[in-house]
Design goal:
rod-shaped; 7 helices; single chain; mainly alpha; about 60% helix; 2 domains
């Protein structure tokens, strides 16, 4: 025993009235077909249907009010804004200062020149690289008495 739904389908009634008023409108026909297939319309589609139905002069105002109430009851869907473009990598300024200080005293130091190239190309300095730079700075400070 299948139970029949005794609910009045106001959207279908408004669609049928619009089809009678605009028999060649591709918009109304596509809405009607979609409503028959899926059983519902999106909020934007219902707003378009309301706009078309409100221009029909012999449509009952209660049907328009019911359609408007259905539209207002549906949730608004907003696309979230894109996140602001933040740089993927920020240079470690302390490492840059250490590289500059070491190259100031030893401009031909191969490992530090390599680390400077890596630093300038926005590549991430590994913790090993940073510890090497700190060790080089300690050696310079002890050997020459250099202070930053």
């Amino acid at each position: 025993m299948a139970q029949e739904n005794n609910r009045i389908d106001m959207v279908n009634e408004v669609l049928e009235l619009c089809i009678l008023a605009y028999p060649v409108s591709p918009f109304i026909i596509s809405l009607y077909k979609q409503y028959q297939q899926r059983g519902s319309l999106s909020k934007k589609q219902l707003e378009g249907l309301y706009g078309k139905a409100s221009s029909i002069k012999d449509i009952h105002t209660g049907k328009l009010a019911t359609l408007e109430a259905l539209i207002k009851r549906m949730p608004n869907r907003f696309k979230s804004e894109l996140p602001s473009a933040a740089p993927l990598f920020e240079k470690d300024k302390a490492a840059g200062e250490m590289i500059d200080a070491i190259l100031e005293k030893y401009p031909q130091h191969k490992r530090v020149v390599f680390l400077k190239a890596k630093y300038d190309n926005n590549e991430i300095l590994t913790p090993n690289d940073v510890s090497e730079l700190k060790r080089f700075m300690q050696v310079i400070e002890k050997k020459i008495g250099y202070r930053r």
